[in-house]
Amino acid sequence: MSIFAIGDLHLSLGTDKPMDIFSGWHNYVDRLTQNWNNSITQNDTVVIAGDTSWAMSLEQTLTDFQFLNSLPGEKYIIKGNHDYWWTSKTKMENFFALNGLSTLHILHNSAVQAEGTVLCGTRGWLFEKGEAHDVKILAREAARLQLSIDAAKNMQGERIVFLHYPPVYGDEISAEIVDVLFRNGIKKCYYGHIHSGGCNYALNGEYMGIDFRLISSDFLRFKPLKIHEMVEF
């Protein structure tokens, strides 16, 4: 039993938003499917770090989510900046249940125990401009991350955090997010959002004792990254 992670699938199977027009995204759904099936079993867990579907409403996600549901493993989805379909956790989970999407789950202001670890996460925010609304959103996302970590307090296992936005990117640092990670002793953080040439500036290494890794799908060449494997004795 293993944990895998990938972000930014940008699926558009039910909408007209092709990603194949971008460099490196040719046949990406077929490549993702093959890599997923070659690596992941029904007993594994996959965290999807935001920007899952280009759908504009929850109802429009159905084809994309049926595709994801058909792939092996239990999937936990966090919010990305392009997930315009996102609504309340209750509505999304009811939509999953109504449509038989039994392997899909929402990770939002919550935590889940999987394969001997505890998974936490939120969207995050990239503090690029320093405007007033950025300050408010960043504070809110830091609070949501703390809620997720707090939800894990009675769960056994290492706490691993997943974000959509990178907390550290080039010279930009979302200090409030990094502070929550540091204060709570988080040692591993995975994030998406960054694509193409921007990946050259992404942090794949340690900052303040925390190991940060980029998991956007094109950076991973559409192969989910194994981040943990449970060894049974």
UniProtKB/TrEMBL annotation:
TM spans (from-to): none
GO MF annotation: an example: hydrolase activity
Domain Calcineurin-like phosphoesterase: 1-196
Family annotation (PANTHER family): PHOSPHOESTERASE, TRANSMEMBRANE PROTEIN WITH METALLOPHOSPHOESTERASE DOMAIN-RELATED
Protein name: Calcineurin-like phosphoesterase domain-containing protein
UniProt organism field: Hydrogenoanaerobacterium saccharovorans
